[in-house]
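User: Design a sequence. Structure:
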């Protein structure tokens, strides 16, 4: 398994644990860094901190494009995989969008429901499509 793939999986573990414990997205990161067994990859730290710092933007995008599936209805694994991938799509320039999507789909295949890979792929593909679309700032105001 490639280093970044392992880092993504570890980031997923940390985000999932934080959510399960009712903590902020990076709520268990300090614990993992302190224990450091197994060692925490710097890319894992970057992902967890990036998701935590941008969670409102990420969740808003997911809500906007997941139509029939509000975040709270998604399996926790899917929700956190999507957060990691959306962070990479929006903020990590050296990871091509198709790689971020593919990695998330692979983890969904390994760790989530039978329907999850297709759902994750479709939702992330939509986010990748719209990320560079300019927002219309010339709309009339009331």
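Assistant: Done.
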């Amino acid at each position: 398994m490639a280093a970044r793939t392992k880092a993504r999986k570890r980031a997923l573990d940390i985000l999932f644990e934080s959510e399960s414990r009712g903590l902020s997205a990076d709520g268990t990161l300090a614990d993992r860094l302190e224990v450091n067994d197994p060692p925490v990859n710097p890319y894992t730290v970057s992902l967890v901190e990036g998701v935590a710092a941008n969670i409102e933007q990420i969740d808003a995008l997911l809500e906007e494009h997941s139509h029939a599936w509000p975040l709270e209805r998604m399996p926790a694994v899917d929700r956190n995989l999507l957060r990691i991938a959306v962070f990479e799509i929006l903020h990590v320039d050296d990871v091509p969008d198709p790689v971020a999507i593919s990695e998330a789909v692979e983890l969904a295949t390994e760790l989530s429901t039978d329907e999850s890979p297709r759902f994750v792929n479709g939702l992330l593909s939509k986010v990748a499509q719209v990320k560079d679309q300019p927002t219309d700032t010339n709309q009339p105001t009331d």
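Helices lie at 3-20, 29-35, 42-65, 76-91, 97-111, 116-130. The chain has a mean pLDDT of 91.
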